[in-house]
TrEMBL record:
This is NADH:flavin oxidoreductase/NADH oxidase N-terminal domain-containing protein. Gene3D superfamilies: Aldolase class I. Its cofactor is FMN. Keywords: Flavoprotein, FMN, NADP, Oxidoreductase. It comes from the Eukaryota. InterPro entries: Aldolase_TIM, OxRdtase_FMN_N, YqjM-like. Residues 39-390 form the NADH:flavin oxidoreductase/NADH oxidase N-terminal domain. One of its GO terms (molecular function) is NADP binding. Pfam families: Oxidored_FMN (PF00724).
Length: 468
């Protein structure tokens, strides 16, 4: 008799890939040395979605889309991160209208033909038992029009790429913010009420497409000088109608988008929002001109929670010439999320950004209740295996994708006799040429999976077929 073990397939996927159970990035429980699992690696559930850890990949613009459609670059970029287990990974800021892009190479979801490239990315994330979100955005008049690695004054040599296909007239609240690079390229047009309604509808239409693509989470981009952010800012918004003036008027546009999107997504789906805690203007703002402050953000967070937002992603800054971009550390930046969590932590989940690169710093922020989650961008760009690195920093063992983890088995200690191999499927391969003469002369490798005496699988690929 020959016994073979075959990989269990990932469910619902039209191509072969092994099922990843538990998901990569999940802490081994119990830890082999009995250590308490740090809060950074404790699961978190928001509505109907559970995340295996609290290290999330921030949206990272790649400036590599073709007509708004994601390309193989995005699969390579994101796929290498999915397989290494963030609790949630975001596709980059995705425009809800063509003119809502910052560059012609930004991702979009304003048209149905953009769904399929998104769906393929989502499908791969789900094949790895990972959660994936999308950030819906409208840049307003803000941002570059050309990719950031072009220097100011760069001469365009490939006009066939239609560098200005986003539109050189951009909408804004109606402001006098100076942004030198942007001002060289575009004209600003204050947004009329009809335009506001059109953009709200565009957010809804893009959210519907995101549902068709299969995303687990939707985030609304309302920070960093994007359109919704500038409407909320007294520094940027000089309107005198119902969308300007008072705090309540300035946040009206954002709440209209939130309400409209929340109304069409499932009740089980979490709704996130990214905001700028402060514009970082300080004394650089003109005398007497108010700016958006941390106190405003704290006030906004409670209102957003009442409108069905589940998670507030607390960032900071705007792309204005006057903005002061301090070289903040993660700990410095965590003061913003901490202020929100202190007041509204019981009603909204709070995320912190700010250059997290090591497990001790990240875990300290969540252990000290300064945030529930940390979000990392550049750290993942440099090290797609950042989750594993943070686990190593904290001295804990996590599950990793089987195809990656097996190569490290020789360096792993035995975890326990009951839960087996930290998710590795075949702990012991004993080459046993058949005791009875080799079974038809075939050299038989009997793979004895000593994984779990109770269910035989520990989530691994344990379809056993007996060849008699």
């Amino acid at each position: 008799m020959t016994t073979y073990l075959f990989n269990k397939l990932a469910p619902g996927i039209p191509y072969f890939t092994p099922a990843q159970v538990p998901a990569s990035g999940t802490a081994v429980d119990p830890q082999p040395d009995g250590k308490t699992i740090p809060k950074l690696f404790q699961p978190l559930k928001i509505r109907g979605v559970e995340f295996q850890n609290r290290i999330f990949l921030s949206p990272l613009r790649q400036f590599s889309a073709d007509g708004g459609k994601l390309t193989p670059w995005h699969m390579a970029h994101l796929g290498g991160i999915f397989t290494r287990g963030p609790g949630l990974s975001f596709v980059e800021a995705t425009a809800v209208l063509p003119e809502g892009r910052g560059t012609a190479e930004d991702a979009g979801l304003w048209a149905d033909d953009q769904i399929e490239p998104m769906r393929k990315i989502v499908e791969f994330a789900h094949s790895q038992n990972q959660k994936i979100g999308i950030q819906l955005s409208h840049t307003g008049y803000d941002h570059l029009e050309v990719v950031p690695w072009f220097e100011i004054g760069h001469e365009f040599t490939d006009l066939s790429r239609d560098c200005y296909s986003c539109g050189t007239t951009r909408v804004c609240p109606g402001s006098s913010i100076a942004c030198e690079f942007v001002d060289k390229l575009i004209n600003r047009l204050p947004l009329k009420r009809e335009g506001i309604k059109r953009i709200v509808a565009a957010f809804v239409a893009s959210a519907v497409r995101a549902l068709k693509a299969g995303f687990d989470v939707i985030e609304i981009h309302a920070s960093h000088g994007y359109l919704l952010d500038y409407f909320m800012s007294p520094f940027a918004n000089h309107r005198t109608d119902e969308y300007g003036g008072s705090f309540e008027n300035r946040i009206r546009f954002t709440l209209e988008v939130v309400d409209a999107v929340r109304a069409i997504i499932p009740s089980s789906m979490p709704l996130f929002i990214r905001v700028s805690a402060t514009e970082w203007l300080g004394d650089a703002a003109p005398t007497g001109v108010p700016t958006w402050t941390l106190e405003d953000t704290v006030k906004l967070a409670g209102i957003l929670a009442d409108h069905g937002v589940d998670f507030i992603d607390v960032s900071g800054g705007i792309p204005s010439n006057e903005a002061l971009y301090p070289a903040t550390s993660a700990i410095d930046h965590s003061q913003f999320s901490a202020a929100v969590k202190k007041v509204h932590g019981s009603k909204i989940v709070v995320g912190s950004v700010g250059g997290y690169v090591d497990g001790h710093t990240a875990n300290a922020v969540v252990e000290q209740d300064k945030a529930d989650v940390i979000l990392v961008g550049r750290g993942f760009q440099k090290n797609p295996g950042l989750v594993w690195s943070m686990a190593d920093d904290l001295g804990i063992r996590i599950h990793n994708a089987h195809q990656i983890e097996w190569g490290f088995m020789h360096a792993m200690k035995k975890i326990s006799q009951t839960n087996g191999t930290n998710g590795v499927h075949v702990a012991v391969q004993e080459a046993k040429a058949s005791q009875a003469g080799g079974t038809n002369g075939v050299h038989v490798t009997v793979q004895q999976a000593k994984i779990s005496q109770t269910n035989g699988t520990n989530g691994t690929h344990a379809t056993v077929q007996k060849a008699m």
